[in-house]
Amino acid sequence: MAKQHFWIACLALGALSIYLFVSAPPPLEEKKAADAAIPVERMFEMLKAENDVVRAMWTKEVVGAGKQTGLKFDERWREADVEAGPLPALFLRETAKSLEKNPTPLSLFLGSDYPVNSANRFEGLQLEKFQMVKQTLKPQFFFMPDIQMQVAMFSDVAVVEGCIQCHNKHEQSPKHDWKLNDVMGATTWMYPSGSVSMDELLRTLAALRQSFKDAYESYLEKARKFANPPAIGEHWPAEGYFLPSSEVFMGEIAKRTAPHTLAALSSLASKPQPGSATNKEGGANIVTR
Predict the structure, then answer these.
(1) Other Cβ atoms within 10 Å of 209 Cβ, number
(2) What is the pTM of this model?
(3) Which interval of the chain is the signal sequence (predicted)?
(4) What are the C-alpha distances in Å from 58 to residues 27, 200, 202, 278?
(5) 3-state class of 107 per DSSP?
(6) What are the residues whose beta carbons fall under 8 Å from the beta carbon of 104, sequence distance 6 or more?
(7) How far apart are the C-alpha atoms of 108 and 75, rounded to whole Å?
(8) What is the pLDDT of residue 275?
(9) Which of 43, 82, 84, 252 is the most exposed place for a label (fewest CB within 10 A)?
(10) Is the pLDDT reported for residue 22 higher than 80?
(11) C-alpha span between 262 and 265 (Å, rounded)
(12) What is the pLDDT of residue 14?
């Protein structure tokens, strides 16, 4: 049995290499429901782990270090007369916009009960679950029957002074007393199925990676038009007025996320998955922990 699990894990890791590190193949045929044996909560956790790595890298090593060497970041970065890049929350928004264009039915957004942009305010069941995230700091997994979506909500904690200052000083912010380690919002993922096949999981991971790449390349495209464009190549902002190329940026993401992602896939491949139970409305049961 151990040998069988070993080969299953090898096959899963080989498939991941094709999807994530080489190139995404054409869409695969839809799998039968019986193949969708991985609870969607496990997929959400893997997506969250990848996003955490990229979010931290962007916040500290691109925005934080870049400001020290002359790069600017602004909420108006998309405007033609603003020579700046996206702030951390806006980089996530760029990633989410790219996901919307991908055929993979994954949605991502950053919401709050005190958002700078009122369109990102949690309401109804999402607000109720967010209050539980704030109280427990534990993720919430639940089903929204009105939109027939599985939802995962993970806390977004203020860990950088710059984020706090930005929100406290922002004229549109409804709250001006944020402090370090406050739960400022929740990274929220949505997917229509309560369970997924390994193929669906790998395609969704690949879609997220592609969205990170699209978001970063949008910034590079803007940076090349600066009056004094940074050198783009092998170096990072901590080394001077530089930006890593898209290949270097994505290579670093692959390097940092590989240990967790590969371990999670290996675990899924080596253990039978019971699948998510369904409720009377046809969606997965509400899971809280």
Answers:
(1) 21
(2) 0.81
(3) 1-24
(4) 30, 27, 24, 38
(5) strand
(6) 203, 204, 207
(7) 19
(8) 45
(9) 82
(10) no
(11) 5
(12) 53
